[in-house]
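Repro:
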Amino acid sequence: MNSALYLGLMSGTSLDGVDIALTEISDDSHAIRCLVFDTIPYPADLKDELHTLNLSPAVSLHTLAKLQSELGQLYSDNINRFLKKNDLTNHYIKAIGSHGQTIFHDPIVSMSIQIGHPAFIAKQTGIKTVADFRIDDMANGGQGAPLAPAFHKTLFQQNNERLAVVNLGGIANVSLLSENGNVIGADTGPANGLMDEICQQHLGINYDENGAIAASQNPDQTLLMKMLAEPYFAKPFPKSTGRDLFNLNWLNQFNTNHLSTEVLISTLNQLTVETLANAIRGFDVEKVILSGGGAENSTIKNRLQTALNVEVLTAFDYGVNPHAIEAMMMAWLAHQRLNEQPVELQSITGASKASILGGVWLP
């Protein structure tokens, strides 16, 4: 079976930076492997500007246009440096799949906006670029998110197991895979995003490494119960959310000033666990697989295993780098688009039919 090389670019809700995955995909898309993975942090001033957008999503057209251009050029520069670092030229790459940075996502108005314009990427790298994946699903009545369950099915459902695949980015989402090939999924709520912001603002560190801070304290049960009363958590599948809801403004409504930073982080960690466990219960899964930046948060892993009483693994146990999976998904989506293969999202997003996702920008 022939294969081709793609670059997947992912900029998630955690705002860490841009992930790049050099991904080999067979023509039938059944064999997918990441050959090289790297994360390039955002410049501090850009990260601050994007954080501000999460808190106050109203933005002037001038600011929107400036960020579209700046991020598009930043992504292009990062790709060119990645290729040079790995002794590759653009002729080796069939296409780039770029997610862009989400600044707005609202299924009610059927619109999702990602910035980092793909025209800059295609022109400045000389590589065909596929992007703007979510809007096609929304045009067919879907929520436009999460997209990950369709890729998780391709990547992990090989042994007819009943699995829950959890992506722990800024927001958590879960893919529930049945042994007969059916898949459903949804965004469950906050994951790394809020915890990271508290670490950065109060402790001067980027994140809670391995969940050590969360493990050092017990969660505050009063705060936890108040947060769990958030109406989003009670919504049935399909559902999607983002940092436009689960941001510091959302957290500040609970008046957490009386708590230590360590207790607050432990409580946010437990919120992630509880909302995931509530979504997974009742589906009789055999295993849970963690992916994304939070896959190495041992406290989430241990607490989730206790809550569900099932084995909780990471994508490493399946031979896949958990940090690379979303970028690999972007490469896979580019492959599906160029081959005009619809992505089955009906049971995940509520779309009326499978959609060919994304637009194509030529060099």
